[in-house]
Amino acid sequence: MPFSTDSWLLTHILLFLPLFHPLFAATHTTPKNATCHSTCGTLPVKFPFGTGFGCGHADFARYIRCSSGTLQFSTGTGVYTISSIDYPSNTLILTDPLMSNCSSMQNSGSFSLDSSSPFRLVAEDTFVLLGCSTTSPVFDQNEELCNTGSGLHICRGMYSCTGVTGIGLTPNAPISTCCVYDPQIVLGSGFMLDLPKLQCSSYTAIYGYGGDEGNPMKWQFGISLQYNDSYYTEACRNCEDSGGLCGFAGLNESFACICRNGVNTSNNCFGRG
Q1: pTM above 0.90, yes or no
Q2: DSSP state of 258
Q3: Out of the domains of life, which is the source (predicted)?
Q4: For residues 259 and 265, is the Cβ–Cβ distance under 8 A?
Q5: How far is CA 62 from the centre of its chain?
Q6: Residue 18 CB: number of other CB atoms within 10 A?
Q7: Residue 204: C-alpha distances to residues 88, 154, 222, 243 (Å)
Q8: What is the pLDDT of residues 175-207, one digit of tens each?
């Protein structure tokens, strides 16, 4: 059977397709401009954070995302709502929907902070374990994991709340099942609050007392984290000055300026790069 011209062309096209395919695939790693926004719901979102993949800095993208108008923080133990961000102090507040507070207490999940993440707990964070078993390792006197000084005052405050009925206690119950958790945290070592291992039914975190340490109804419940602010560069500043949003693209996650006109550049949105 003779070898036609059409067959010859088809054979050569098929041979060359694998050579061009990686080039086409690489274009899919560039973020779509429509996925990057300066707000999530009512919360301003600034670098190094982003609202979706390809937005903000790559080191933060695995932890922060915007979902249905809510800015979320993800760890190995769950997804938490970011209720506020204070950019001048590089801090944010997380809200755990299962975490107890004075008004409502319930069985909680655990909380962890990846040691490789660009976040760390702030010194003002106070973790309180509630409804703990008398055999809990937090009560091991050799470990000294419970603050037995000012922590007793915090435990009394929490157990004076009507919300303790949610974990099977009565208001003003004995505080022998409460522990203000004070683990030895080495800077950069991360954090793990494993409630099943600690034999506690619930936890709460307090980042402030609202000017009244004697009234737990005014205490500020949530987890305060500080983030690394060393990621801001001159390239990002130039991008923002031109009206763009800083992001990243490609397999090497190199810097990209996400422009509002749908163009992503390596420089800025003034038509250069």
Answers
A1: no
A2: E
A3: Eukaryota
A4: yes
A5: 9
A6: 8
A7: 26, 11, 8, 41
A8: 999 999 987 765 556 789 999 999 999 999 999
